[in-house]
# Entry
Amino acid sequence: MWRDTLLMAGKDLRIEARSRVALSQVAPFGIVALVLFAFALGPDRAPMVKGAPGLFWVAMLFSSVLAIQRSVSVESTDGARDGLRLSGLDPAGQFLGKTLSVAAQLLVLELVLGVGVVLLYGASIQTFWLIAVSCLLGTIGLAAAGTLYGALSAGLRIKETLLPFLLLPVVAPVLLAGTRMWQAALSGGTPANGTPWFHLLIAFDAVYLALGVVVYGPIQETA
Amino acid sequence: MTTKTIVQSPRVIWTTRIIGLLALVGTGLTVWLGLWVTPPDQTQGDLVRLVYIHPGVAWVALYLAFGLAAGCSLLYLWPRTRSLFWDRLAAASVEVGVVFNVCTLISGSIWGKPTWGVWWAWDARLTSTAVLLVLFLGYLALRRVPAEPEVRARRSAFAALFAVVDVPIVHFSVVWWKTLHQGATVLNANLSPTIHGSMAWTLLLGFVALTLAFVWMLLVRYRIGALEDYLGSGELDMALLERQSEGVVPPAPDLKAEALAPVDDAGAAPGPRAPAEVTR
Amino acid sequence: MAPASSPSSALSLRDVVALSGRFPLLAGVDLEVAVGETVLIEGPNGAGKTSLLRVAAGLVPVASGQASVLGLDPARYRTEVRRRVGMLAHAAHLYDDLNVRENVRFAVKASGADTSRIGAACERLGLTGRLLRTGAAKLSAGQRRRVALAVLVARAPELWLLDEPHAGLDASARSLLNEIIAEATAAGATAIVASHEPELVASLADRSVTLTGGRVTGERTILASVDPPARIVHVA
# Structure
């Protein structure tokens, strides 16, 4: 399974390296979202700084939907999905590989957006490791749940509109947890504030990774 | 039990009707008792009357309907118990559950406006319920996508599974969101006053009546779904026959005989003639 | 793990019905293919030739009847069956953003096969030099077919399933394809070729099965060197 995971992740990342979709389309979309939020919240710094964690995570969530859609559409050309089934590649490995690849892209995106938030909104980061941990765990959760729902909506013609509607409510806990942890990090709050959220993210990640490993194969066999 | 049995058996039809009648009577009784007979509460006044309806619809929506849907989805996915019956039941359950969910939110809102002064509050329970609603609206959206019944059933079952798994996580995150948030809250989310006497009985009656209403709607919705599928399945045998008959090559018409045939005076085409012997 | 089996039967279908929703792709197919045989499946469009191959590959589930591929049940031993079976389908299953070499490498590694034969396979199919580094999006249909074929040659599966492999190929590519099939079967593999132009495959096949309306409606043995009118045996 792990060999297949690395094979799949490597293939997806190589495709991304060639086509640079995440870099040239998804990241700019995230930045545009941040800018629009700034317009909406008005020129005063105060509401922007206060809202920075939430805005960062909302921008991440929307961008992750795009990243997931890209990850799914890679397999829809030339019957590649059939090809993957024919190859006998372990479905659990396929799921983990795709999740890994999406997570990697999202981490880069977070870096970009994080810098954007610091620059554009004037937020200042007090406790860095809270940020790092929340981003890492949140990304894994987004990638896992997203890959699962992406697989579910893969063969459908209306997946562009269906996927956000299906995925976003499900990842609401990531939004809540990430935002709270960021708030604690930006205001220099004590680590204790972050602990229950940390546990929540771990639980979310564990659940969706486990679900994906078990269920990805059967999903592929129906479409 | 085959689809045909459930859908057309008179026993099932009559049971459904009786349940519906009981539900109607029960709900009517609850309304009468709730609005006129029971006394108003000391602190909440007439507002307390909502308690006869609101927890009832909430219990049905959150636990009964969606729990049933989750159970049926699991049963469908498990190879040994796989049957479209579970899929149809799950779908019917979610549809009715969504209706009850909306009723929960509306009745909660109606209670909230006079109490909190706002139509909506980011109370932990309200928020969780709203997210639950959206999750299952997603399930229904997924079901509307045209697909073969088995494919649709599997996809929906997975979606229900994911949604249900998410529910406790969402619940805890929203509860922590409220409680861990720095900032006092003046909202009192306590909806159930200490209750006794005629109020307690009415409350119980409300629960029972609403549960019966759910069961009735579930049965009716299930039958509709089963009828739709039943109409479709009868076509499989016909389709098999048609497919097999593709292999039968119709005998080639004898062109020479046709050319020499007398044409009808009325100008109508000659009727179908028996094909000539075919030599291969 | 699946039981290691050295079956004498490469494919065994007994009254197999395969459905796509309500539509029966296969409406009761009986077919036995022994290891090492080359069988041609012929029939008009829509007869179910592709569906039969897909059932053999384990892509389409069997609704009723019994199927056994290389001695294994394709539903139970899915991964094992798929790794030992190779299919050349209409689509080449290539990733547009990767070049030829990367596509072949991925496909071969994904099916768990040894990567040592990739170089030789690519050369055999004329995929050399600049072509190897060309992105899959820029390939012509014939070139895509050759890439997919290179993957098969490198994987060397026990059962080859070829769906109208000659379609879209020029004459030299067609003869190369025939050579490759012949080499594979000479090395012990089994080949099942679906085509509605049987003349192209007749030189290779031992046997031809006619499929119509989702069922087997005819079967004939192809005599290799002599070519008098073939015996026609109708299988009801």
About this structure: The radius of gyration of chain C is 18 Å. DSSP finds seven helices and nine strands in chain C. Chain C touches chain B through 16 residues (CB under 8 Å).
